[in-house]
Amino acid sequence: MSDTPPPIPDAAGRTVTLDDVARIAKVSAITVSRVINRPHLVSERTAKRVRSAIARTGYVPNLLAGGLVSQRSRLVIALVPSVANPAFTETMTHLGTRLAAARYQLLLCQSELPHQEESTLIDAVLSRRPDALVLTKPLSTPTARQRLLARGLPVVESWELNADPIEALVGFSHAAAGAAMARHMLDHGYQRIGLLWSEDQRAETRRRACLETLIEAGVAVGAQAAVPVPVGMRHGREGLARLLEMDPRLDAVICSIDLLAQGVLAEAQARGLRVPHDLGVLGFGDFEFAAHTHPRLSTVRVDSARIGELAADHLLRRLEGDKPTSLVHDVGFELLVREST
Amino acid sequence: MSDTPPPIPDAAGRTVTLDDVARIAKVSAITVSRVINRPHLVSERTAKRVRSAIARTGYVPNLLAGGLVSQRSRLVIALVPSVANPAFTETMTHLGTRLAAARYQLLLCQSELPHQEESTLIDAVLSRRPDALVLTKPLSTPTARQRLLARGLPVVESWELNADPIEALVGFSHAAAGAAMARHMLDHGYQRIGLLWSEDQRAETRRRACLETLIEAGVAVGAQAAVPVPVGMRHGREGLARLLEMDPRLDAVICSIDLLAQGVLAEAQARGLRVPHDLGVLGFGDFEFAAHTHPRLSTVRVDSARIGELAADHLLRRLEGDKPTSLVHDVGFELLVREST
DNA sequence: CTGTTAGCGCTTTCAA
DNA sequence: TTGAAAGCGCTAACAG
Lengths: 341, 341
Hints:
2 copies of one chain form a homodimer. Chain A is of the alpha/beta class. Chain A is built from 12 helices and 12 strands. The structure holds a DNA duplex.
């Protein structure tokens, strides 16, 4: 059992500190600190000795202490409604990757757990003293907003393009997307359109714009149904059933999100309705599966990865000391016409 | 604009500290601390004054400082491969909810970002001094394991039931699940079975057991194909195509995960194969969509939520000072026979 | 029930 | 290139 080097925690059970390492390497504590954080300030000879001491002791820096004195935690916290929402995964992957490359750690906080109030949650997050925050939706509580403003913390709000960002905004116009969805259906000549929508603020913005465009064009909106979040395929199936009950002659359904569209596809199939011949189906989000359903789903693509990258870039610029330049970046969206419309 | 009370950060731009609050409330710092952390030790009269001072100043505690001295961060970090994997969402929601109820904050760390080495990642996580860790898969690096062991940190490994846990293990036997999947197909009389599998260690464990059971029963495994992670529906569609090329007479396909099975369903449909008549399809995971595909997908259900609850319970017990009782909890699994087999 | 003292582990600042 | 002193903001331990 001597092939793995012995662990050497401290002689007692005490956790190893910078001073312990310093003593072993016969240097001062600050030198050890420099080897870890600013190695270019230390001679290679000394650094080597220190690194060996770190390895032998299994020293792991205490960022609580480091962050307390330096006022930098190298921590970025991102709020996501829940990890169940596939919309944000690409954003988070790219955000995390880019931040990690700059030695910042991204940690995710689920914001839509039961009994969580927004301003309490923000306080809990701020109490960790992150260097920056990423929000996947804008704050609705004024006090929470003020906390961030007061602190001058770098913040990126994302997946939206509302009027009044705290500091930076990376997203797209949900209203424009909703209108584009309507126009697409209009172009394809659909006449009796049903709307299947999730009870979510952003989805609601898309729905309104969509409905307005449809009405302006004089097209009948035969039926509308709302489903609770978090949505699943189940709501898509049940939703189509409800819609068809309200108006059996629907020739198309627009869905607030691909998950619903997928359910609609399944329900249509179960009822022997041919898509797109008997029923056109349009989704939103371009989730991975959308390109591989049968028939393949027409949808709206949002560049989730790019949102993450832009957020990271802004944050990194801010963290390098740049002034809080207010940024509003529209990443746009793209209507993907596949086989379901 | 005077309906929202004025913010009052510090007179200067300095962030508000405990001492500031104490001065305003005319009490000592420790009393403010008590109002926040152990309110039962403070008279209601004093507490009231303090709370009002907190509210007026917008004070947000600094947990870096608090954690440094108290050696408790009230932070639990969970490692998830990536937020893209729906298997863990229920686990994380329930874990987070239960921990929050006990005043612990759960933060998620993505462990499968590019350029992330396991032991480096663990060190980065440990440097935040969390009070506990939850792993969605066991550590493979011996040094990382040792770090945790040495630190005596409460740790739950989950979604597995391997031989040698660091401390606690909540999961199920992937081998048993694989065998059960095979037996199910056998019971239904399938004769030429294809295996579509993702390149993932746990999936591989299930595949082996599945294959073994099939072979023991003397059933032909006509074809096998592996797909890279992260898997998507796309791999399911392409996978069935490859499988059918290898053996056009396949009468069933077992998939390592529901996402693949969903793709197989779509591809079968696109080719005019009727499920389950022409082709039986079995998935794993019982993701939300599985019950709502057409036909509904037979699969293996794992109680993801319960894993999170059990993990939380163990951690909470440990954090209340209990000895590191080694726990191995088998949550089992359930074969859900729906319409695709 | 409230306060005083000391110090957690680290980095900043200044000096050599 | 290295080090000494000071202190970040908070809570444990003890005293009153």
